[in-house]
Amino acid sequence: MIKMRLARLRRLLAKQKLDGLLVSQPANRRYLSGFTPADGQLGESCGSLLVTQRDALLLTDFRYMLTAQAQAAYYDVRIYRQGLAQELAGLAGRLGIKRLGIEAEALLLDQHQRLAQALEGVDLVPTRGLVAGLRARKDPEELRQITASLALMERVLDQVLSGDLVGTSERQLALKLMRAVEDQGGEGPAFPPIVASGPNGAEPHAEPGERVIQAGEPVIFDVGALVMGYMSDISRTVVAGGLERADEQFRQVYAVVRQAQLKAIAEIRPGMTGSEADALAREVIAQAGFGERFGHSLGHGVGLYTHEAPSLGPNSRDVLEPGMVFTIEPGIYLPGWGGVRLEQMAVLTATGCRLLNGLDRFHDL
Ligand code: ZN
């Protein structure tokens, strides 16, 4: 897999007339090399890749030497002692690098200045989304890992939804979800779980708090697991205490969101742009009079990160291709009342969406 990924990257480098690419973004680094360590705080790095047409080097420091050698089999591991910039300065001449691509989204200004100073005579060319574009189309191994991550998350969510929600706090449920992901063998949650009850559900990214859930309230669950480095992302909205306690508003809003979701799943095709895909669901919601209350994108790619390419949003020009994995998550949010969001994950095939989900947990209206 790594070999194929490198070959795809090298074709891109040739097209852009770059002699090499310095890969500092952690997910890109892992994707291209197999080297898994995560960077610490902002400004810290556990290594960078230098990829040219002929060479593949993993530049890191002493702390990661053994891991790098064990994990990055296709790479020549080099331990820098005076930092990345100095190491690169030595290498650039030897490897004949005159135009070096750097990742504009991943490099701090400080790091860029150090590189510019050390690499005299080398043109540092900012690139955007180069490796992210490769990562958008998943290979079979990645698809298996994403599916495993989603299956684990669904088992956990199903268990929690089988229990009593009424009388429990959002925070208690969030903790339960996080613990269960680890108990079931996941590395942890992909992101802090969202449990938003009643009016709190009107904020799409509400933080779970001490609020105690009341019967008849809608509760949004938006959760994901991290399994073997890969993320999942799923949302369900349920009525605490059962659908029979729901108010009329819920029935109306829920039906519209679900209809929008099903339409998008049925009609998204390869070759569409992200904005065309988004419009499929957005039109349903707008026609029902809730256009202003669907303030986020329809979906996003999922893989080594929870949010990655492609974007399925009103402004997205990303072209959807077979092999891409993304969420389909329309929502309606009414301040003072609450919200409904339903999220599925799909892989795009030559003919359309194939859902990766096994869990139902939809209200049947
Ligand atoms: Zn999502």
Q: Care to describe what's here?
A:
The protein folds into 2 domains: 2-135, Creatine Amidinohydrolase, Chain A, domain 1; 137-355, Creatine Amidinohydrolase. 35% of the residues lie in helices and 22% in strands. The protein has helices at 2-15, 26-33, 65-71, 84-95, 109-118, 130-136, 140-162, 170-183, 248-267, 274-287, and strands at residues 20-23, 48-52, 56-60, 76-79, 99-103, 123-127, 188-189, 194-197, 218-223, 225-227, 230-231, 234-239, 299-301, 308-312, 325-328, 331-334, 338-341, 344-348, 353-355. A 6-stranded mixed beta sheet has the order 4-3-2-1-5-6, sandwiched between helices. Strands 7-10-11 form a 3-stranded antiparallel beta sheet. Helix 4 (84-95) crosses helix 5 and helix 9 packs antiparallel against helix 10. The radius of gyration is 23 Å and the shape is elongated. It binds zinc ion. Residues 233, 300, 327, 329, 343 line the site of zinc ion (ZN).
Give the topology.
Layout (H helix, E strand, L loop, with lengths): L1 H14 L4 E4 L2 H8 L14 E5 L3 E5 L4 H7 L4 E4 L4 H12 L3 E5 L5 H10 L4 E5 L2 H7 L3 H23 L7 H14 L4 E2 L4 E4 L20 E6 L1 E3 L2 E2 L2 E6 L8 H20 L6 H14 L11 E3 L6 E5 L12 E4 L2 E4 L3 E4 L2 E5 L4 E3 L10
Parallel strand pairs: 1-5, 3-4, 5-6
Antiparallel strand pairs: 1-2, 2-3, 7-10, 8-9, 9-12, 10-11, 13-14, 15-18, 16-17, 18-19
Helix pairs in contact: 4-5, 7-8, 9-10
This protein binds zinc ion.
